[in-house]
Design a protein that fits this description.
CATH class: Mainly Alpha
Helix content: over 70%
Largest sheet: none
Strand content: under 5%
CATH superfamily: MFS general substrate transporter like domains
Number of helices: 16
Structural class: mainly alpha
CATH topology: Growth Hormone, Chain: A
Order of helices and strands: HHHHHHHHHHHHHHHH
CATH architecture: Up-down Bundle
Number of domains: 1
Oligomer: single chain
């Protein structure tokens, strides 16, 4: 096995542990919040603070890894996640909603570091292997899909404080990630310059149409996915579906997110990145149509599978497109801005999920995504049109 493949598979394992923590929290976080929150509107706040923690950690994570390398940064992130799981578990034992939100914020910071796994894979891979490397790292989420929801259901009553066992399980997963990362050779700090040229001003990079399309597509896809996924367990329980049924839907959703990763990189290489991103937008719009058509189990599960698939194409496509917009010496600031924008809109979506579900219901929450998806499609289509014009001129 080549060195680049070893790194990619190790990062996929780390991704699996991080995503399992994430899916576990997504499964029980809103329900745990509902048991402690002073109002229903605040029930999804523990999940929203995950996104907040990710946003707060994104830029520091990029700077730390740009200076000291990927491994120290990833291990620090996993340590923060372990601390967050402990605090959240204790919060359920003592009944503290504030401490629960602090704990989930720290777990979010772990994700702020871990979201750079895909870029670490891209840096370790050759140009030909890059899109597939990003895609393969994302397959770690398949483990999360199979384990996360059921782990949340199995551990929620393990201790006297309901859901405390689930949060302590996050600490165990983070500790395993620290051990795995310690045994992996990862890319070092970014070079100071590329080909003898100094880094360009960020404004020059950000004005590139490819950069705008990459950030917009990934951010909109992620925000729509998280907003809907956050509200799904609450909506299902409100419509007389059990917690176990909601966990099953989340499991199928996460499979929809990550199983396509086996093929996304190859499809991007064959058909191009912008066509795949536009297909992702179309799939998310199809999700909306199914979601607003009914509240039976089949409506929820089929819509959530499509929600995951659309996210996969937009997120991996956006990440791949972004790598075409910067030199190695510019990667830290560009990746930091990209992921900060993504988690910023994700945080907004997470914070609004409970309120949107309470105010407008399941159908209204899904319809809210349509104008954002239309805007993303327009930006991506413009980049594709420019590429076609350039190809004709060539």
């Amino acid at each position: 096995m080549r060195d680049e493949q070893r790194v990619v598979f190790a990062l996929a394992g780390s991704q699996a542990l991080m995503q399992t923590s994430s899916v576990l929290l997504m499964t029980v976080g809103g329900l745990a919040g509902a048991t402690l929150a002073p109002t229903k509107v605040m029930a999804t706040l523990p999940i929203a603070t995950i996104a907040l923690g990710t946003a707060l950690a994104t830029i520091p994570a990029a700077l730390i890894m740009g200076r000291f390398g990927r491994k120290p940064g990833f291990m620090l992130g996993a340590f923060l996640g372990a601390c967050g799981g402990l605090l959240a578990g204790v919060s359920m034992l003592i009944g503290s909603f504030t401490l629960l939100c602090v704990g989930t914020t720290l777990v979010g910071a772990y994700q702020g570091f871990g979201q750079f796994y895909r870029f670490a894979a891209a840096e370790a891979a050759s140009d030909e292997f890059r899109s597939r490397a990003i895609s393969l790292v994302m397959t770690g989420g398949i483990v999360a899909a199979l384990v996360g929801p059921h782990l949340g259901a199995l551990t929620r009553n393990l201790l006297p404080g309901v859901y405390a066992g689930s949060f302590f399980g996050v600490t165990v997963l983070c500790a395993a990630a620290i051990v795995a990362l310690a045994m992996t050779r990862l890319p070092g700090p970014a070079p100071a310059a590329s080909d003898g040229e100094p880094p360009r001003p960020f404004g020059v990079i950000a004005r590139q149409p490819k950069f705008i399309a990459a950030v917009t597509g990934a951010a909109v896809g992620y925000a729509v996915m998280v907003t809907v996924m956050t509200a799904t367990p609450l909506s299902m329980v409100e419509h007389d579906h059990g917690v176990g049924t909601a966990a099953t839907v989340i499991q199928w959703h996460v499979l929809g997110m990550f199983v396509p990763s086996f093929f996304t990189g190859g499809l991007i290489k064959r058909f191009g990145v912008t066509p795949l991103m536009l297909l992702g937008v179309g799939i998310l719009l199809t999700h909306v149509l199914i979601a607003i058509s009914g509240i039976a189990f089949l409506h929820y599960v089929s819509a959530l599978v499509l929600l995951g698939l659309g996210w996969n194409l937009l997120y991996i496509g956006g990440s791949t497109l972004l790598t075409e917009t910067y030199h190695p010496s510019e990667r830290a600031k560009v990746q930091a801005f990209n992921d900060f924008m993504i988690v910023g809109v994700v945080a907004a979506g997470s914070f609004s999920a409970g309120a949107l579900n309470e105010a407008f219901g399941w159908r209204g929450l899904n319809l809210f995504a349509v104008p954002f998806l239309a805007a993303a499609a327009l930006v991506i289509a413009m980049v594709q049109a420019r590429a076609h014009r350039a190809a004709r001129l060539a």
